[in-house]
Amino acid sequence: MRIKNQSRFLLVWLxxxxxxxxxxxxxxxxxxxxxxxxxxxxxxxxKGNVAKDISENGRDGDISGAGYVKGVFGTCLDYDxxxxxxxxxxxxxxxxxxxxxxxxxxxxxxxxxxxWVKWGPNSPGEKxxxxxxxxxxxxNLRVEVNGxxxxxxxxxxxxxxxxxxxxxxxxxxxxxxxxxxxxxELQVKEGTEHAMNTNxxxxxVNMGDFLAHHTFMFGLFDxxxxxxxxxxxxxxxxxxENGLQAALGVDPQGKLTTSWAxxxxx
Length: 266
Ligand SMILES: [Ca+2]
Ligand SMILES: [Ca+2]
Known about the structure:
Blueprint: H1 2-28, E1 37-41, E2 50-51, E3 61-64, E4 67-70, E5 75-80, E6 85-88, E7 100-108, E8 115-119, E9 128-135, E10 138-144, E11 149-151, E12 161-168, E13 179-182, E14 185-186, E15 205-206, E16 218-227, H2 233-242, H3 244-248, H4 258-263
Antiparallel strand pairs: 1-16, 2-3, 3-6, 4-5, 5-16, 6-15, 7-12, 7-16, 8-9, 9-10, 10-11, 12-13, 13-14
Bound molecules: calcium ion (CA) (2 copies).
One calcium ion (CA) binds at residues 65, 80, 82-84.
């Protein structure tokens, strides 16, 4: 009888420990819902002119010029800074003041106002342009909307890989409401305030080409994705540390993997 009671006691404690472990690990980095992924490229094809979208939307990218080299995860695109570009055919981005997050890895070929991700026409508030902000011999992560901008202070043009995240939180209405992360560090917000009214009809999403007097992207570009939600700092960390494919729980064909499918049922 005494042994039976001890066994029962042990079993209860084991259950508490296991449940605690599962709870801690599932809440620490909440899985990212695939429905929130607008488009996501791993650039692991290694050849050809089509960037395969691993989201559920089938928004394959049309690559012009950029070739493949070794990236942060698998291979990445190598932009020559002259005319290389990628167009997300048929997709013009997220509009108005809707929440959004853009993430990518970048390794600079030099210091310049690299054009990373943009959509919308060059009109006040309507443009959505994620590019580099020049500061002497350095450059910073910047988002601008024509009439307003928001940029950080960490140098991302030092020839090293950097992970960048541009988050427009739900309920926000102006460009300086964006939270900018470089290698997981929340940036100080500099720039000029302006209301957001992003145009999501006039121009397809471009990755590499510039607007007005700026410059083409020059350097290496890996693991880019646009989300229709404001990802949390933990979710951005999960993407940076584990890679997009693992963080989203998809295989290269864009199908949900079993492990994350199980976790997602919590
Ligand atoms: Ca890759
Ligand atoms: Ca070229």
